[in-house]
Amino acid sequence: MQIKAMLSKRIEQTFAVLGLQGDALVQAASRPEFGDYQANGVMAAAKREKKNPREVAQQVIDHLDLDGIASQIEIAGPGFLNFTLDPIWLATAAPGQVSQATPPATIVVDYSAPNLAKEMHVGHLRSTIIGDSIVRVLEAQGHQVLRQNHVGDWGTQFGMLLEYLQESGESSDQLADLETFYRSAKVRFDEDEAFQNRARKAVVDLQSGAEYAALQWQKFIAISMSHCQDIYDRLGVTLSPEHIAGESRYNEALPGVIKALENKGLLQESDGAQCVFLDEFKTKKGDILPVIVQKSDGGYLYATTDLAAIAYRTSELDADRILYCTDARQNLHFKQIFAVARLAGFNANQSSLEHLPFGTMLGADGKPFKTRSGDIIKLADLLREAENRALRLVQEKNPGLELQAARKLSKIIGIGAVKYGDLCKNRTSDYVFDWDQMISFEGNTSPYLQYAYTRVRSIFSRGEIEVATLPSEAIAVDEPERRLAVTLAALNDTLEQVAAEGYPHYLCTYLYELATRFTQFYEACPILKSTGEVKTRRLVLARQTADTLQLGLSLLGIDTPERM
RNA sequence: GCGCCUGUAGCUCAACUGGAUAGAGCAUCGGCCUUCUAAGCCGAGGGUUGAAGGUUCGAGUCCUUCCAGGCGUACCA
């Protein structure tokens, strides 16, 4: 049940009856004394009709039918409507159930997209886990989600790598560390002219489909992808080899892209390059910004590939929405290719093309994040560090725990902390990377949420409660119970927001609030010590909390341990 | 130069897209474990939301002009 949507609809229907226009502007109450939900839209609607907002608010209440849903509706301030939900209705709001989208859509999500020439580093973290979380939410809502991992597996650098692979042999130890491999290849490339020439030839051979080059390339890609897959598996990301749709896949479609642009009369030559000039990208001075689709040497660019990808996704995959989870620095690029795609008819099905940009990860100095030696931190190292820190804490908190169990637990906690540390921030802005902050276990962190979950589990095991025998609904009575129940019921409002706008931090904020409400309830309302109806309803609320926490964390891609 | 983004407590971030007294965590200070896990709870201090104007019942949010930072801006992705 999406409460906000339901209330909005009812209020707006009432607006229509009264001849008013505008949105109801429903939101969760900003303060407890304002009830559970508030509607702010009356004031604007009244103003449009030049009427007294409080009088209009009264008329809305008179015509609004929320019998059995709201136990109290009040007018406050200049014309706010404050709603208090009926506890009996609240009990039936089915916490822990994800509302299914009607009708479900086909949604392509383009995310992760590591460069296969190098090892995954912290810069790939955001796209990978933000995209994965959005994918999980959309799937939970019943949408058909098509993951597209647009890996960088094509281009000039591969000539160098293929030639070096040929020279050093695929059993080379350096391949265990792609970063070293890349660097060594670069050294060879820079020092030896003959090597350079062979590397350039390898590129040409590869792109023209020579068999030896293709074989060598496939070997390299396979090795590189297995590195990525290791990271995905450790991170608990739902990507697998079947989701790979890299740049190379569109290679054969690229001449067709140019041809199509030409047929549409969009193509212009400029300094030897094939370009599309669009009025909307003119500067005030009248300078025009080209979208270059073919270089003067005949080579293609990422704009060309992305256009081919749009055509494929909108027609072959039949996508209703295509979401791109990439760095904010590509803002202009996506604006341009979306515009070109529309003009050229590549977006055959009028798919909604949405760029979900995220900011850069910075170091403490405010500059893009590097290690002391100037290297970018590898994801593998980041994850190891997170697990080690978690292990130390786990052993400190649970001295009796066997090492193997402690390791298992520290994986769940450490990886969760890394993911949550990133997901809980508004993706749009740059953010400062800090070991202690990212791998933190107190306050608004995933361990706090996991901890709240284990406390519920602990109640059930200690009280020897058969969860299955509990009733499915409980009517909250005491204030901490009510506050918890209201928060439980808001799950789907939050999920809808995440799905519509692609901001997983809404879900984090929600879960943190839920865990906080639960902990307050836990402190104030004894469960196992209570008896009869009181005990039952509190057990039910606890179970609903555990279910919702587990569900919400799973939608962020974070596991829940049974004890900590 | 032009364009996009950012500027909120000592630090790291929220603020449901114009709503009521700007909220959390960390850090600091004080209280709470013989009672369901203290990775927790309760409380205190800490703010001219970069600056100045403007729009209106109402502005951190919208507009204008500045200031500071980041990124992008013709053959990298």
Name some characteristics of this structure.
alpha/beta; 20 helices; Isoleucyl-tRNA Synthetase, Domain 1; four-stranded parallel sheet; RNA-binding; 564 residues; Gyrase A, domain 2; four-stranded antiparallel sheet; globular; 13 strands; single chain; 51% helix
Give a written overview of the molecule:
This protein has 564 residues and is of the alpha/beta class. Among the domains are: 3-85, Arginyl tRNA synthetase N-terminal domain (Gyrase A, domain 2, 2-Layer Sandwich); 157-238, no CATH class; 446-555, Isoleucyl-tRNA Synthetase, Domain 1 (Orthogonal Bundle). Helix content is 51%, strand content 10%. It contains 20 helices and 13 strands. The strands form four sheets. It has a four-stranded antiparallel sheet with strand order 1-2-4-3. It has a four-stranded parallel sheet with strand order 6-5-10-11, with helices on both faces. The protein is globular and about 85 Å long. The protein starts with a helix and ends in a 9-residue tail after the last helix. It binds one RNA strand of 77 nucleotides through helix 2, strand 8, strand 9, helix 12 and strand 13.
Class of the domain at 446-555 in CATH?
A: Mainly Alpha
In CATH, the architecture of the domain at 446-555 is Orthogonal Bundle
Structural class: alpha/beta
Largest sheet: 4 strands, antiparallel
Fold-level CATH name of the domain at 446-555: Isoleucyl-tRNA Synthetase, Domain 1
Q: Please report the total strand number as a whole number.
A: 13
Bin the helical content.
40-55%
Would you tell me the overall average pLDDT? 92
The span between the termini is 32 Å
Q: Could you say which overall geometry the principal axes of the C-alpha atoms support? A: globular
Number of helices: 20
Quote the beta fraction.
5-15%
